[in-house]
Design a protein that fits this description.
- Its EC number is 1.-.-.-.
- Belongs to the short-chain dehydrogenases/reductases (SDR) family.
- This protein is of the alpha/beta class.
- The protein has one domain: NAD(P)-binding Rossmann-like Domain (Rossmann fold), CATH 3.40.50.
- Helix content is 42%, strand content 16%.
- The chain is built from six helices and seven strands.
- Helix 6 links the parallel strand 6 and strand 7.
- The longest helix has 29 residues.
- The chain starts with a strand and ends in a 7-residue tail after the last strand.
Length: 234
């Protein structure tokens, strides 16, 4: 039986790159996004490129608690994944003292609460099985405060704290937990920015780092992966 990976927000950027990387290894894929046409296009593309890979998709808005739980139930009908990648996220620029109040709630529900509910949906099974690897896709914004980061930066600091706590809780049960903290990565989030592409990290490099961390023996864990553009932060 093939191994499986769940990647939230898998139709673009880092999530999509991770799906492609694990598909090359024959993993069964589970993913979601808010756009069904993009999900279907991803499924067709990945299964066409990697005949051994199977892609299972569901339209879901993970900022909504009930939809996050529904997606977890959808996955559980088939399996408990070997790898869970919490990647769903949004970025709304602004200052904490000036941004519309609803930006904070929307960002925290999308970036943090979705991770909380989805992770909790699988941890009991991971503990019983005594295996699993959970990746949280954070950001260097969770390490360094910066102006105009607003709610996004707060959510990524919280994501790092969540993942560190999770690491301590699941350590005795054979479950590995890794924070991934990329700098500016060339994805749709940076569309329209007047900077050359080579100033950004390649999404495929982040995916390769995730694969490498997963591929270690069960005796070792990479707790944090920090990746920055070679020429420095943007």
């Amino acid at each position: 039986m093939s191994k499986s990976i769940l990647v939230t927000g898998g139709t673009k950027g880092i999530g999509k790159a991770i799906i492609h990387r694990f598909a090359t290894e024959g993993f069964t894929i589970f993913t979601c996004s808010r756009n069904s046409s993009e999900l279907n296009a991803l499924k067709e593309q990945v299964e066409g490129l990697y005949p051994k890979a199977e892609v299972n998709v569901m339209e879901a808005d993970l900022s909504q608690k009930d939809e996050a739980k529904a997606f977890a139930a959808f996955v559980k009908k088939s399996t408990v994944p070997d790898v869970l990648v919490n990647n769903t996220g949004i970025f709304i620029p602004g200052s904490l003292h000036e941004e519309p109040e609803e930006n904070f709630e929307k960002t925290m529900h999308t970036n943090l609460f979705s991770t909380y509910y989805l992770t909790r949906a699988f941890t009991d099974e991971f503990i019983k099985r005594k295996s699993g690897h959970i990746f949280s896709i954070g950001s260097i914004a969770g390490l360094t405060a910066y102006a105009n980061g607003g709610s996004y930066a707060v959510s990524k600091w919280a994501m790092l704290g969540f993942t560190k706590c999770l690491r301590q809780e699941l350590m005795p049960h054979g479950i590995r937990v890794t924070s991934v903290l990329p700098g500016a990565t060339y994805t749709a989030s940076w569309e329209g920015v007047d900077l050359p592409e080579d100033r950004f990290i390649k999404a495929s490099d982040v995916a390769e780092a995730v694969w490498s961390a997963y591929n270690l023996s069960p005796r070792s864990v990479v707790e944090e992966i920090v990746i920055r553009p070679q020429l420095g932060d943007i």
